[in-house]
């Protein structure tokens, strides 16, 4: 698509959508959002890029091949599941670490659940971009 | 409101099946998208409809305030949507491949696996 | 199969299995003192604790007798094979099959649990299939192996059902517990158990009328026949009947089924045996005769019959293995197994001839061989039976025929006729091929002259295992004084001599008479052909190859199943009220339907995409209205992607043909739609179980530290589901990638 407006707007939109998607991912445990929504939102940014400037540019911006990202995500989810082995819990049991927790506040929560959600994000993000890029290039 | 949606879902499913039975792969895929939408909605409706109260726990509370929408079907449907999308994209790519390889989109003309028995 | 190279053995691969079998034999032999003293050895560990199934083994007199025969004859057969198949390119495979079979057989006779017994039972079926079909280049060999597999496999299925039934009836799968409790005979399922167990045992032991697979199994290399048909495979059924004897025997069903089938098999097989001109085939039928006799004896209850069973079991294993190996020697030396061509081998193959003579005399039941003792005991057992005349008559006839066959098979080729018209000049075989026949033949003779140790070590403990009391065992001795069994023996010899003298004309007559019986072997082929024809007809009907037909059948079945189930169960439909009806959701639902209908009616691809998008966005609005923001966002994003992808694909795909009305499809789709609506309505008519949802709501923040319950369910409570789902998404993407990037299709 040769549209100057789209091409220029995309330059900013891709970054904006990526940041927004990470925001959606991180707040997902407490507000609407999460890995699925974040992954889809992040992917739309790069799809816009691909439509405006071609998939080559989009792939360049992505640095890693999207199918690799998807596999990394699957690996992260698996890793999150295995973390529970450290404490002897069942597979995928959530493990939590509250940094700076005090009475009434949970501080900064870090958890295997977050790693799992990041895995979901990466799988959805990578899989959608794989599908779209391949179809753009080969169809 | 639920019975009303039950009938709408049936209507959507009927349209989807009619499309899938057309014998052309493109219409089949359109039917597939509609059918997965109908299935998702069916799951959602069977968990009952609660307007305007998302299943969120307010800041400072330990449980949702008052009655909220049923969270379980929402979780099921959410993943089903994404999987449905994966299935749809795969079917679309398969259709495209079938077109470039076989030169037809008519399902009944695709007889590589089960050639016509000539007796 | 003749030796294929000038090698004399197979080196390490040849000798290792022999050593293994010999070590097993030594191990079991070392248990003799304990078992002879009346002990029963047990060993077990839990296997499926939830089902009460144990990996349990038991060693009593019966098991020990079988274990010694299996490992002992196995040792000799493996040693023999090493020379018989010297240099065979697939000897390693052969040795593996034979050793696996040997181990499976040992497991079978040692198992003390019904399920474990069945596992080994099936293992023997499988490994014997591989052995019978070892010469797989030959069509006949494959066909016969498959026949053996089908027949014994079908019996095995019935057997499994019988074992399960027995396990339920007895409340335990432990064989020793079932026997100790001894309450199966009064159970309502007794007849069913009996029929199913018989189906398994009698197919495996090739009793009339499913005997036909056994002579065909001679397609195997000769040492395999020696092993399978002397001590093992076919005796598995016999072992099973013997093992179950304490728990099931004594009822009219048991006695008459086994007596009649055993007698019929024994007589029929001896007649068939006399008719054969191929030495191996003749021996195969004598095996059937022995199996018939053993079955017949197991039908009885007396101590004599049980002693006769234990003795004849050993006798038969010894002489039959020896004779098969002798035939292998003759075959290898002369290149033929046809009776008419053979003669005068005694001078050139002295040791083989000697071993053959010892084994044949034992088989003929001549004194002072163990076969004689066995025969006397059989007659004594027969006279104690419920139908002495039938049993004794059948046994006398069968034994007389056996006497004649022994002469034809094992004496005549060596001592009569001349070696003139043989394909090859005969030469004695290597020591490996002589060890088996000589050791087995000599053992039969020694045990005949000195039966005491055998009685003490094996026969009495076996009888004790069968009847529960060692005192039931009859004495093994050559001379009982002048009594009815001795007179029957003399009559047998006279009849046997007469049959031998007249065996040529008799053979012709038998060929004519038996030829008029229905040929079950060919019937089997017809049965298989019929099955194949039916399968072809059915496949052509059901698998038309038209995708539209498959789809219509699938959806039709879905609708039919749903409607039938709901109508049969009754529909708990909710009262259809307009309470809570509001216009906004109704409008959204209408929009959703309108989008669907638009896709249905249009032939423009752009309009179709628009319709799809409309419908999807309407659904997303439904989610939004009813408190599901996460789902609504996901739906919206996915719907956008769907439209984008379809638009990309449509650039290269052809236009849609104009829609035409298809009444058949319309009927099916309306049925599916109606059944979905009805199902959903009846679900809504049921009370909703909210216990899971309540748990998630209550535990979401305190336990899982999340305020968005939907997300907590996805990544924590039901994370393993989600894990599977993202794996599916990733695989779908990879598959699409492979389809698009992979081998380039013919691009149009």
UniProtKB/TrEMBL annotation, chain A:
<feature type="domain" description="Na+/H+ antiporter MnhB subunit-related protein">
    <location>
        <begin position="5"/>
        <end position="130"/>
    </location>
</feature>
<comment type="similarity">
    <text>Belongs to the CPA3 antiporters (TC 2.A.63) subunit B family.</text>
</comment>
<feature type="transmembrane region" description="Helical">
    <location>
        <begin position="68"/>
        <end position="88"/>
    </location>
</feature>
<feature type="transmembrane region" description="Helical">
    <location>
        <begin position="108"/>
        <end position="133"/>
    </location>
</feature>
<dbReference type="Pfam" id="PF04039">
    <property type="entry name" value="MnhB"/>
</dbReference>
<keyword id="KW-0812">Transmembrane</keyword>
<keyword id="KW-1133">Transmembrane helix</keyword>
<protein>
    <submittedName>
        <fullName>Multisubunit sodium/proton antiporter, MrpB subunit (TC 2.A.63.1)</fullName>
    </submittedName>
</protein>
<keyword id="KW-1003">Cell membrane</keyword>
<keyword id="KW-0472">Membrane</keyword>
<feature type="transmembrane region" description="Helical">
    <location>
        <begin position="12"/>
        <end position="29"/>
    </location>
</feature>
<feature type="transmembrane region" description="Helical">
    <location>
        <begin position="35"/>
        <end position="56"/>
    </location>
</feature>
<dbReference type="InterPro" id="IPR050622">
    <property type="entry name" value="CPA3_antiporter_subunitB"/>
</dbReference>
<dbReference type="InterPro" id="IPR007182">
    <property type="entry name" value="MnhB"/>
</dbReference>
<dbReference type="GO" id="GO:0005886">
    <property type="term" value="C:plasma membrane"/>
</dbReference>
TrEMBL record, chain B:
<dbReference type="GO" id="GO:0005886">
    <property type="term" value="C:plasma membrane"/>
</dbReference>
<keyword id="KW-1003">Cell membrane</keyword>
<dbReference type="InterPro" id="IPR050601">
    <property type="entry name" value="CPA3_antiporter_subunitC"/>
</dbReference>
<keyword id="KW-0472">Membrane</keyword>
<keyword id="KW-1133">Transmembrane helix</keyword>
<feature type="transmembrane region" description="Helical">
    <location>
        <begin position="75"/>
        <end position="99"/>
    </location>
</feature>
<dbReference type="InterPro" id="IPR039428">
    <property type="entry name" value="NUOK/Mnh_C1-like"/>
</dbReference>
<keyword id="KW-0812">Transmembrane</keyword>
<comment type="similarity">
    <text>Belongs to the CPA3 antiporters (TC 2.A.63) subunit C family.</text>
</comment>
<feature type="transmembrane region" description="Helical">
    <location>
        <begin position="25"/>
        <end position="45"/>
    </location>
</feature>
<protein>
    <submittedName>
        <fullName>Multisubunit sodium/proton antiporter, MrpC subunit</fullName>
    </submittedName>
</protein>
<dbReference type="Pfam" id="PF00420">
    <property type="entry name" value="Oxidored_q2"/>
</dbReference>
From TrEMBL, chain C:
<keyword id="KW-0812">Transmembrane</keyword>
<dbReference type="Pfam" id="PF20501">
    <property type="entry name" value="MbhE"/>
</dbReference>
<feature type="transmembrane region" description="Helical">
    <location>
        <begin position="91"/>
        <end position="109"/>
    </location>
</feature>
<keyword id="KW-1003">Cell membrane</keyword>
<feature type="domain" description="NADH-Ubiquinone oxidoreductase (complex I) chain 5 N-terminal">
    <location>
        <begin position="47"/>
        <end position="94"/>
    </location>
</feature>
<feature type="domain" description="MrpA C-terminal/MbhE">
    <location>
        <begin position="666"/>
        <end position="742"/>
    </location>
</feature>
<dbReference type="InterPro" id="IPR046806">
    <property type="entry name" value="MrpA_C/MbhE"/>
</dbReference>
<keyword id="KW-1133">Transmembrane helix</keyword>
<feature type="transmembrane region" description="Helical">
    <location>
        <begin position="349"/>
        <end position="370"/>
    </location>
</feature>
<feature type="transmembrane region" description="Helical">
    <location>
        <begin position="188"/>
        <end position="206"/>
    </location>
</feature>
<feature type="transmembrane region" description="Helical">
    <location>
        <begin position="431"/>
        <end position="450"/>
    </location>
</feature>
<feature type="transmembrane region" description="Helical">
    <location>
        <begin position="632"/>
        <end position="653"/>
    </location>
</feature>
<feature type="transmembrane region" description="Helical">
    <location>
        <begin position="722"/>
        <end position="740"/>
    </location>
</feature>
<dbReference type="Pfam" id="PF00662">
    <property type="entry name" value="Proton_antipo_N"/>
</dbReference>
<feature type="transmembrane region" description="Helical">
    <location>
        <begin position="608"/>
        <end position="626"/>
    </location>
</feature>
